[in-house]
Design goal:
Layout: E1 10-14, H1 18-33, E2 38-44, H2 56-75, E3 79-85, H3 88-96, E4 101-105, H4 116-126, E5 131-134, E6 145-149, H5 156-169, E7 174-178, H6 181-192, E8 199-203, H7 207-217, E9 222-228, H8 232-241, E10 245-249
Parallel strand pairs: 1-2, 1-4, 2-3, 4-5, 6-7, 6-9, 7-8, 9-10
Antiparallel strand pairs: 5-10
Helix pairs in contact: 1-2, 3-4, 4-8
InterPro entries: Universal_stress_UspA, UspA
Family: Belongs to the universal stress protein A family.
Pfam family, one: Usp
Length: about 250
């Protein structure tokens, strides 16, 4: 069962890494914009587990204090902190079913995880809410675009809604990529209804190939990639094959 403290909160998995602090700062802006609480969680294994450091509680307290201080210094947002025992991935998935969003750093969901990419992908694919995997060290990239893949999938409207919200929140241009000319024309009409937001629609014959270049070779120009979780390729990007931060939203992967 999800902890009541995480209900309708933006939850961040803290593990003592700089990437986790970056994720906390990124998530604080989400929480403030949506008027939601920010909840920082450090998950320890069972007492005495060799996977944890010798003084796990002290390590947890230090990591949480550091992350909360980074949030306060950067955004002024007040964060709740908590350390719990359990499996880090399972705990975050459990919390996701009552949270508004879960955010983690790109180098690992937990301080003990040596397969950070697969763990982040597993979280993105199984969570009950949107999951943000934040790259380190530069998570904001002022001026970078918000990129979204647009198609006819059931979660397309959700992807568009989140991409637009992120672009507005971060004062960033929105780049929408599709392989369907009819979809592109609809996107152009949609963009005309939002003249306050710089929106570019791109038709690519091979969307996967275009995004592979955009999100790896040209990742410095991208602030965030927003995708549905129905495409397992997107879970691979969340798991580390993408050079920018990734936000996955929508239904279960097919």
């Amino acid at each position: 069962m999800g902890d009541r403290k995480s209900t309708h909160a933006v939850v961040v998995g803290i593990d003592g890494s700089p990437a986790a602090c970056n994720a906390a700062v990124w998530a604080a802006r989400e929480a403030a914009d949506r008027n939601l609480p920010l909840h920082l969680v450090y998950v320890m294994h069972s007492a005495g587990d060799p996977a944890d450091p010798p003084d796990a509680q002290a390590a947890a307290s230090s990591a949480l204090s550091q992350a909360r201080r980074a949030v306060q210094d950067s955004t002024g947002v007040r964060a709740e902190i908590e350390s719990v025992h359990g499996n880090p991935l399972a705990t975050l998935i459990d919390r996701s079913h009552s949270a508004a969003m879960v955010a983690v750093g790109s180098v690992g969901v937990a301080h003990t995880c040596h397969r950070a990419g697969s763990t982040a992908a597993a979280l993105a694919g199984s969570a009950g809410c949107p999951v943000a995997v934040i790259r380190s060290p530069d998570t904001h990239r002022d001026g970078g675009a918000i990129v979204a893949e647009v198609d006819a999938s059931p979660d397309n409207r959700t992807v568009l809604g989140w991409a637009m919200a992120e672009a507005k929140l971060r004062h960033a241009p929105l780049r929408m990529v599709t392989s369907d000319e009819q979809v592109r024309r609809r996107l152009q009409d949609w963009a005309q209804r939002h003249p306050d937001l710089p929106i570019e629609s791109i038709t690519a014959g091979d969307v996967a190939d275009y995004l592979a270049g955009c999100l790896t070779e040209e990742a410095e120009s991208v602030q965030l990639f927003v995708s549905g979780t129905r495409d397992r390729r997107s879970l691979g990007w969340a798991g580390g094959t993408c050079g920018c931060s990734v936000l996955t939203v929508g239904g279960a992967p097919r």
